[in-house]
Request: fold
Amino acid sequence: MENNIWLQMKDYFNNNMDSFLIAIKEHLEISLIALMIAIIIGIPCGYVCVKFKRLEKQIVSLFQVLRVIPSLAVLLLLIPVMGTGVKSAIIALVLLAMPPVLMNTVVGLKEVPDFMVESAYGIGMTEKQVLWKVQFPLAMPLIFTGIKTAMIEIIASATLAAKIGAGGLGGIIFTGLGLNRTDLLLIGGITVGLLTIATSLLLELINRTMMKYKYVR
Amino acid sequence: MTQKAIEISNVTKKFKQAEYNAVDNVNLTIDEGEFITILGSSGSGKTTLLKIINKLYEPNEGTIKLFGEDIAHVDSVQLRRSIGYVIQQIGLFPHMTIAENVATAPKLLKWNKKAIHERVDDLLNLVGLNPSDFKDRYPSELSGGQQQRIGLARALAVDPKIMLMDEPLGAVDAITRLHLQDELLRIHGGLQKTFLLVTHDINEAFKLGNRIVIMNEGKVCQFDTPKNIVANPADEFVSSLIESSRNQGKFWEGLG
Reply:
């Protein structure tokens, strides 16, 4: 039996290497696009929360609520509105990825000590310069952690995107479920796992090179 | 005749939720090149007064003139670039190297690279740190005293005529503190700048200042040379300050 699975998996790679690679490519594409959108919306939203404290509760709780809805439910709910396909999948993933990016931006910016901001103003920085040269760089480690969390959640959840026809590695898993083929389940599942580990290692590497000052001594 | 560097007239500052004025009708005239120390306990308004001078706070009443120019009519960013400012927490940017920290103000003013490079080296030498040893390190790798030297170098970077220092030595140990006091005197003597240093340490105030502002509850109790203050304390508060310091001296003699 065990031999059988290995043979089946080998067989799969021999015959379907192309479609396997395409599945990985689709998976990464959906994930990266969703992450980019989540960053582009999430970080400015976080800044707005810190700058206008009145809005913070509303924005943060909105995304908290959205986060509680299971991704699969969001996907299915989006079908009547957006139809099936990549777009719906990306929207669902963005909703999933927004909270960690947004909240870590809020916490990161809030944790910059007042005296640091004061000394930046004291040197003669404008408000913009204080933001870009001091507040954001100092908030960056936390924002980056949020991005990492978001990325891992996205890659794992992008599997579900196949359910509404957006492709990706989920396709292999769902086919495996349908045909009761353990080999396909293993290939799909392990590949998603490896992708998650690989991207988090990559992000950690970027983190270490960007925030060198955190790791001196 | 020496020029008047700072003229503070009738300055009052009241914070929104406060019952008392943080700074209460303060009048001071400071000449160029003086080393003024502002002595007071916490809550006496000394830090507030300093922050009004570089427009981190807006006064409710009164005017401040720097070299004859009313700061109300000067853009606050431009004003702060022309004034050196050092705070107790130092506020070195942890994500920048020492050289980048010191170069902050010159970079804002868009100096060319070579000039910045030379300036950083000069400043590090001035504050007694070897440029090649320290330039590329991060603030977290330095001791408190070294960090405060860098804070001073950063504030001096664009050669401001006025230096405001808010308890710059408050966070360093007693021995380093004495060293840095001597350094401050040396640097002041060599530069002919106007120094304003806030402290709650009476010994520091009397050692560093050629004149001392003594503040209590937002008001200036006395503004005079150390000698005159000791000879003629203006009120209860000032004499009790001097008395407490004398008692401390006696205490040490008693131990010896």
